[in-house]
Amino acid sequence: MNDVFVGSLISALSTGLGAVPILFMRNITHRLRDVLLAYAAGIMTSASVYNLIPEAIRHSNWFVLSAGILLGCLVLLVMEMYIPHADLEDPDSKTFQLESKSFLIIAAITLHNLPEGLSVGVSYASETQNLGNLIAFSIGLQNAPEGFIVALFLVNQNIGRFKALGIATLTGAVEIITSLVGFYLSSWVNGLVPYGLAFAAGAMMFIVYKELIPESHGDGNQRIATFSFILGLITMIGLTEWL
């Protein structure tokens, strides 16, 4: 219990830690933004493909894995369709009032954090040593650029820098709740761990392909974003071997 709480707390606070530079700078180029998004996408892909999915299939079979992945994608799809949110580069965002637009951006980032917290909690419920620590660290690593980007957006909408930092930090706090939910459900319900791991992997891959990769390729920075994605992938694989 203590481990999952500490792990989820660290991964969640990484969102706020990544937003700290916003106190000292205001503008960011599309190029750097795309690099950060692609790097986060690489980390999430590696965590899903090389950690969550192999662990899920080790405790079950291909059918359980497939069901969990598809369910994770389906749930994220339904949530995206029915929960109000907006992308950071929404071309229609100018039609919103400041308060409404900021709320939608916060909702989008919070929505993305739900499966990440779940993956941390389920990983700690697994019997594999250090899997929880590895996933918590990887999620925290990719949360940092995400926190910086959302804080930058809020500052550019004339929201105070300290307030933007606080809001960015709070968007990651939802991971603590979903981590505990995932941990307790997996601990109490026999056989739920592989489903939970596969579900988290599917949800994360949905975010990578539906949101992060398209956004990182939308401003003519495809080549450097691709290398940044690969660097994130390699980073996570290296962490896996090290831990």
Automatic annotation (TrEMBL):
> What Pfam families does the annotation carry?
Zip
Query: Which ranges does the record mark as transmembrane?
Result: 6-24, 36-53, 59-83, 103-125, 131-155, 167-186, 192-212, 224-242
Where in the cell?
A: Membrane
User: InterPro entries from the xrefs?
Assistant: ZIP (IPR003689)
Q: Which domain of life is it from?
A: Bacteria
Q: Which UniProt keywords apply?
A: Membrane, Transmembrane, Transmembrane helix
Q: Which topology term describes how it sits in the membrane?
A: Multi-pass membrane protein
**PANTHER family attached to this UniProt entry:** OS05G0316100 PROTEIN, ZINC/IRON TRANSPORTER
Name by which UniProt lists this protein: ZIP family zinc transporter
Which organism is this entry from?
A: Paenibacillus brasilensis
